[in-house]
Structures are given as C-alpha cells and as structure tokens.
Amino acid sequence: MRGADTGMITSEYALGTVAACAFAALLYRVVTSGTVKQLLEGVIGKALGGQF
C-alpha cells in the first residue's frame, strides 16, 4: 500500500499561486476603484485631522 500524502505536489502549489495572484489582482482593482478610494481617503482624513 501507498503511504499517506504528507504535502502538496508541484501542480497544487502552482494552482494555489495562480489563485492567490488572481485574488490579489481582484482586491487591488476593488481598493483602487473610485468609490472605495474616496471612502478610504475620507476615513484617513478624519483620523489624521481629528482633535487630540
């Protein structure tokens, strides 16, 4: 009998890397979109412009 699998094979690493890159690209597109960018700038502006 064959032993238990203890890790991923090269093709699984490659598929995982491609999936991670695709997710990163999608996340980048969302974060740099106009609406999200304006919201983030507003939050950062309020945080830095607040009274201490």
Outline the secondary-structure elements.
Layout: H1 10-31, H2 34-49
Question: Can you put this structure into words, describing what you see?
Answer:
- This protein is 73% helix and 0% strand.
- The chain is mostly helical and 52 residues long.
- The chain starts with 9 loop residues before the first helix and ends with a helix.
Condensed summary:
The chain has 52 residues and is an all-alpha fold. The protein is built from 2 helices and no strands. 0% of the residues are buried.
Characteristic key phrases:
52 residues, mainly alpha, 2 helices, 73% helix
Q: What low-confidence regions span 5 or more consecutive residues with pLDDT below 50?
A: none
Chain-averaged pLDDT: 85
Beta strand %:
under 5%
Number of strands: 0
The coarse overall form would be: elongated
End-to-end Cα distance: 69 Å
Percent helix, as a range, is: over 70%
Helix tally equals: 2
Rounded radius of gyration (Å): 21 Å
Could you say which structural class the secondary elements and strand pairing correspond to?
mainly alpha
Query: Which H/E pattern describes the elements?
Result: HH
Q: What is the multimeric organization of the chains shown? A: single chain
Question: Main beta sheet, described?
Answer: none
